């Protein structure tokens, strides 16, 4: 009797795993930044990010490098926005956009060198969808304008929706440039 229960349990468990494995899809996933502003190692990680640019040479490696940094900075911006650290979040958002905008240059260089860039263009297209989705979520959850008032200095008005719209436009322009 015990063997029958074990066999039936195994069959049910196997069926459950097999039936749900086809539903799990992660075609493109954003990476989580290792250190956030305020951490003692944050500045070091930023320096390492810049130094890695020398390590990743070649068009394909550069695309993966800049796309990874763009993802990392976008998640950093999203996290900072969630914690209402808008000044730091806008900075991370601008860094993400800057990294994303470099992608067409390396794709075009790869194409001019007769490299097959189709899979990378597909990856970038998936990234565009994810980035636009994250930017839209951020826009919904944040105020349109935020006034940041530091101690002993003048206030800074942050037009958050404008910054998010600029980032969204830049992401869309990248995919439009790749379609040319």
Describe this structure in words.
It is a single chain. With 180 residues, this protein is mainly alpha-helical. The protein has seven helices and two strands. Helix 4 runs parallel beside helix 7, helix 5 (103-112) packs parallel to helix 7 and helix 6 (118-141) packs antiparallel against helix 7 (160-179). Residues 19-24 have low confidence and may be disordered.
Annotation keywords:
2 strands, mainly alpha, two-stranded antiparallel sheet, 180 residues
> Strand order of the main beta sheet, please?
1-2
Beta fraction: under 5%
State the separation between the terminal residues, measured CA to CA: 67 Å
Q: What's the overall average pLDDT, rounded? A: 87
Structure summary, number of beta strands: 2
Work out the radius of gyration: 21 Å
User: What share of the residues lie within helices?
Assistant: over 70%
Q: How many H/I helices?
A: 7
The 3D shape can be described as globular
For the largest beta-sheet, the strand count, sense and barrel status come to:
2 strands, antiparallel
Count of discrete structural domains? 1
| Derived structural class | mainly alpha
Task: Report a brief summary of the structure.
The chain has 180 residues and is mainly alpha-helical.
SSE map:
Layout: H1 2-21, H2 42-55, H3 59-82, H4 86-101, H5 103-112, H6 118-141, E1 145-148, E2 156-159, H7 160-179
Antiparallel strand pairs: 1-2
Helix pairs in contact: 3-4, 3-5, 3-6, 4-7, 5-7, 6-7
């Amino acid at each position: 009797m015990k063997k029958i229960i074990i066999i039936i349990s195994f069959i049910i468990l196997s069926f459950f795993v097999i039936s749900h494995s086809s539903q799990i899809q992660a075609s493109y996933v954003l990476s989580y930044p290792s250190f956030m502003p305020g951490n003692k190692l944050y500045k070091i990680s930023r320096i390492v990010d810049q130094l890695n640019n020398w390590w990743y040479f070649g068009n394909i490696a550069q695309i993966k490098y800049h796309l990874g940094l763009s993802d990392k900075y976008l998640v950093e911006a999203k996290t900072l926005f969630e914690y209402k650290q808008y000044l730091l979040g806008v900075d991370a958002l601008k860094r993400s956009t800057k990294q994303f905008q470099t992608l067409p240059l390396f794709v075009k260089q790869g194409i001019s060198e007769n490299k097959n860039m189709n899979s990378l263009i597909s990856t970038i297209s998936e990234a565009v969808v994810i980035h636009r989705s994250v930017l839209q979520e951020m826009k919904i959850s944040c105020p349109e304008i935020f006034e940041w008032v530091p101690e002993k200095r003048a206030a800074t008005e942050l037009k958050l929706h404008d910054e998010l719209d600029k980032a969204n436009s830049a992401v869309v322009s990248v995919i439009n440039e790749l379609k040319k």
